[in-house]
UniProtKB/TrEMBL annotation:
Keywords: Plasmid, Signal. This is DUF4142 domain-containing protein. It comes from the Bacteria. InterPro entries: DUF4142, Ferritin-like. Residues 1-21 form the signal peptide. Residues 45-178 form the DUF4142 domain. Pfam families: DUF4142.
Length: 181
């Protein structure tokens, strides 16, 4: 009788262990997340075009801020943007050449409109308009660099994205602190 109960208990334990293994197996075999359609469609040429436009927007808007702003904190920020994004543009050019990708420098319609709005902004509104544009531009650059760093093919452009992601995040934090002042 004890043998029969032991055999029944062992069978039940085996059944429970098998059921648990079947329940946990799919969890362990979850597929890795796939890039979004937007990220997947962004190949090296698309990345280079958007990254070059992002850097160029930063350069042009910083030049505007240096001419128009009277706030020393804003002009200091703008000078940093000018220096960092000129350097980033040169590094992007080198990475694109190494990966055999041509740079086609064309600002998006939204970037052109933002620059025009900054040029036409009232003097009293310029600093807030510039800093607002910086917040948005850096959010977009963070998404672009992060997506390419995560999903782009190995090569110099991916190395560029990985290397510049932290700098752009730092720029955004700094822009945010100036916006909150």
């Amino acid at each position: 009788m004890v043998r029969l109960i032991t055999l029944a208990a062992a069978t039940a334990l085996t059944f429970v262990a098998t059921a648990n293994a079947q329940q946990t197996a799919p969890i362990q075999q979850l597929p890795t997340p796939q890039p979004s359609a937007e990220t997947e469609a962004l190949g090296p040429a698309g990345f280079v075009q958007q990254a070059a436009a992002s850097n160029e927007f930063e350069i042009r808007s910083a030049e505007l801020a240096l001419r128009r702003s009277q706030d020393p904190q804003v002009t200091e920020f703008a000078q940093t943007m000018l220096d960092d994004h000129r350097r980033a543009q040169e590094q992007l050019q080198s990475a694109a050449e190494a990966d055999s990708v041509a740079i086609v420098l064309e600002l998006s319609m939204e970037q052109k409109q933002t620059l025009m709005a900054l040029e036409q902004a009232e003097e009293s509104q310029f600093n807030s308009a510039y800093m607002s544009a910086q917040m948005k531009a850096h959010d977009e650059a963070i998404r672009l660099l992060g997506a390419y760093a995560d999903h782009g093919p190995a090569g110099s452009l991916k190395t560029y994205a990985v290397a510049h992601y932290p700098l752009v995040r730092t720029h955004k934090v700094r822009a945010q602190s100036l916006t909150n002042d």
